[in-house]
Task: inverse folding
């Protein structure tokens, strides 16, 4: 089966590359992926793959049935949305939509899932079970398309026994792949704080309640809260990325806004930290005579790769790619809404190298110059198909 999958990945490479170019050239922001969804639906229809559109807005779910389709089910997921970035690459397939770019590789993810779908559909008489294809909107934007897809029933009828997702990784060379069992990526929650004081003349601070000075105390103090109240063995990051307030050098404003993010890898501590952040901020502001309005929308949970499934997947990858081309990934404090799936069914989120080699680093994701070595498409397509075939056998 390995050679059959590799042969088809090679055979379909020109078409797969063209698909990636089309999706890359027509990026759409989170929850606006109408044209992308229509293109993907058109390809699935062209190949005779049963699918449903319009799930959670622009999501698509396809089903490929092998022999004895009711015996087991494995899901494969890809995200479709782009980022609000002006592309700086000078390539024939550069973004045609101003200010929008596939800078995180979701064009690659959707392309790899389409390619895997074509291969699995061709070989459906050679494997048993059902493969569920999940093309998901809105990974880059709260509340995350995965949560909406799950609420719409994507993990039912049939319920997957396992789910796989992949992500481009420019830190690894093309031809390699990476895995990490257990906790892999952090939860990601946004923090919005408004500190309401009383403005006035900068030369008369005693007649004001200075929200800028109070904001400085809050930011500094919250770093102490996270480092002193959290178990040092649990990774945690609190970052404020925006402070907004004030008009001039000689004016104390009425209010200041703080925008930040909190990330961790422990769900219990996650919610304890939310309370500490809220209580500390409110009490600190009150001590200076100000009022704090704290909003912490619950975002993505931590991403947990099922240890048994991921251990098997690493072994399958070594079979497919050779042991030297399978790497162990470091944990990451970035967030990813594939995490929602991993809290419902056993999941494995893995990486494919997209760089030229170990020495040349082209550009990171979320960068206007991000691009891939397109030979990595063969790896992504083949690995997704190979994971699905093996997982259906492993779930017996």
Result:
């Amino acid at each position: 089966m390995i050679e059959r999958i590799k042969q088809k990945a090679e055979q379909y490479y020109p078409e797969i590359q063209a698909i990636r170019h089309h999706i890359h050239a027509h990026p759409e922001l989170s929850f606006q992926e109408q044209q992308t969804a229509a293109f993907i639906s058109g390809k699935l229809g062209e190949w005779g793959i049963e699918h449903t559109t319009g799930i959670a807005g622009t999501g698509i779910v396809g089903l490929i049935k092998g022999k004895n389709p009711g015996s087991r089910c494995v899901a494969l997921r890809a995200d479709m949305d782009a980022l609000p970035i002006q592309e700086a690459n000078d390539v024939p397939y550069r973004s045609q939509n101003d200010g929008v770019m596939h800078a995180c590789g979701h064009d690659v993810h959707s392309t790899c899932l389409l390619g895997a779908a074509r291969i699995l559909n061709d070989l459906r008489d050679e494997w048993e079970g059902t493969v569920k294809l999940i093309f998901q909107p809105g990974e880059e934007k709260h509340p995350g398309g995965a949560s909406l897809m799950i609420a719409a029933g994507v993990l039912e009828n049939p319920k997957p026994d396992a789910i796989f997702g992949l992500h481009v990784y420019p830190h690894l060379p093309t031809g390699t792949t990476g895995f990490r069992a257990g906790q892999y990526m952090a939860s990601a929650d946004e923090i919005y704080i408004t500190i309401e004081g009383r403005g006035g003349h900068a030369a008369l601070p005693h007649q004001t309640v200075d929200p800028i000075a109070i904001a400085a105390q809050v930011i500094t103090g919250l770093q102490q809260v996270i480092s002193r109240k959290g178990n040092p063995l649990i990774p945690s990051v609190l970052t404020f990325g925006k402070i907004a307030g004030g008009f001039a050098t000689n004016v104390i404003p009425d209010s200041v806004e703080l925008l930040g993010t909190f990330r961790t890898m422990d769900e219990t501590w996650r919610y304890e930290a939310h309370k500490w952040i809220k209580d500390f901020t409110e009490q600190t502001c009150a001590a200076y005579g100000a009022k704090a309005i704290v909003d912490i929308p619950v975002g993505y949970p931590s991403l947990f790769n099922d240890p048994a499934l991921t251990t098997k997947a690493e072994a399958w990858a070594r079979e497919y790619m050779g042991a030297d081309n399978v790497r162990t990934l470091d944990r990451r404090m970035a967030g990813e809404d594939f995490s929602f799936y991993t809290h419902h069914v056993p999941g494995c989120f893995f990486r494919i190298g997209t760089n030229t080699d170990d020495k040349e680093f082209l550009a990171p994701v979320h960068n206007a110059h991000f691009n891939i070595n397109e030979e990595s498409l063969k790896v992504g397509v083949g690995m997704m198909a190979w994971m699905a075939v093996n997982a259906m056998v492993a779930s017996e």
Observations:
- The first helix runs from residue 2 to 11.
- The mean pLDDT is 96.
- The chain is about 35% helix and 25% strand.
- Residues 78 and 178 are 17 Å apart (CA to CA).
